Amino acid sequence: xxxxxxxxxxxxxxxxxxxxxxxxxxxxxxxxxxxxxxxxxxxxxxxxxxxxxxxxxxxxxxxxxxxxxxxxxxxxxxxxxxxxxxxxxxxxxxxxxxxxxxxxxxxxxxxxxxxxxxxxxxxxxxxxxxxxxxxxxxxxxxxxxxxxxxxxxxxxxxxxxxxxxxxxxxxxxxxxxxxxxxxxxxxxxxxxxxxxxxxxxxxxxxxxxxxxxxxxxxxxxxxxxxxxxxxxxxxxxxxxxxxxxxxxxxxxxxxxxxxxxxxxxxxxxxxxxxxxxxxxxxxxxxxxxxxx
Length: 292
What we know:
By secondary structure, the chain is of the alpha+beta class. Helix content is 28%, strand content 42%.
């Protein structure tokens, strides 16, 4: 009985970061959810990863509009920390991931067996796109700190989503960051939006941003690309470079009438402590507003 030969595909990328950071961002669920998509139309809302030989992983991948989704899952066969990962996918295909370290960069190479439903070229392009997205995520993270906060709210996701973004209630919970906090613009996907506030001297500052994604009652992604200094929008220069590409993501997960609100945000190292102290207070305020 003849068996068809397996098609083996390879993708690779060189990341300007040490292998320790590349390994961490490849294997930690809090990072996987940020880079594991081939295009902006898809995202990974949840990732589980038991990184050991015999351990299981499951990365949920979904279209942003909720029209389709699937679990990318399998079992680890071999783990060589900082060097190599071998795993078997749920459909019995084998995958090898190699990490090659140099003085200032790390090359990640994936070798995988193609499935038979889609053309090999399409599969290779998809895996390469995800790997390119990983490279972009790691390299941008070199200048940013990733923070995560969450709270459970006794209210449906529709209510939490609506009250978190509505002008009046937005000002209520964000005044914990700045008493004059407000926004100007639209929450629609692709729209420009300004986040504003005045300092003690009356100078207006804030962020110039765009809504990268908006999935009603489920997810909001804000991408910052400029700053506001003394009322003027600035989108180039050293100050902007510190924030450009930074994300602020809100995820709303409803279960049994309650909503788990998660915030994943990028910040610069000098603001890390400030946000670690202030975001929990802000989430408590949102919880108070929504449960009233």
